[in-house]
What we know:
Rossmann fold, six-stranded parallel sheet, 12% strand
Amino acid sequence: MNIGIDIDGVLNSQYNFCIDYGTKFCNELGKYKLENTNVIDTTDMFLWGEDISHQFWNKYRKDLVIKEPAKKYASEVIQKLKNEGNKIYIITARKNNDEWFAESLKKNIENITKKWLKDNNIYYDEIIFDVRDKGKYCKENNIDIMIEDDPINLRKLIDNTNIIIFDYPYNRNNEFSNLTRAYSWYDIYNKIEIISKDKNNFSNN
Length: 205
């Protein structure tokens, strides 16, 4: 099967990063506090304006894209999936010159991302940057399963591929209640096995 994998929130723990670093940044500013843990965006988490959010990401994005480790067992599970004959696609909205990256990183986001994947032993057959509509991409490129966390992307993926949601408070909406949900990388592995068996059973009927 062709398996698509998101980076932020799936390969790394961006949600926990935002809470850890965001509360630290509030302390540094001497104002603001964690207001909402059921959202994906720092502006909504801390009720920051975009100017404060830009300050935060300009200061700390480097820690996320360079220093933050991959999720536990992500490397191990992806290698197992590859060894079993699956093709691994990293599908991300990251791109060079993204306005939410500090000037020191902007021109080199794609190479920084590739280095992080290498440093964390994340195998992939292909990596695709600047994907704004993951549903369209998955449909046009025969992606059998997409592992995703962002509600905006999940809405576009519905009806275009099998979806595995990496569980977070911000994606527990009723609209996603019928989708497959996973809580760890080995849970993802088990869910992929189930989807694969169902797909093979369907093909044999």
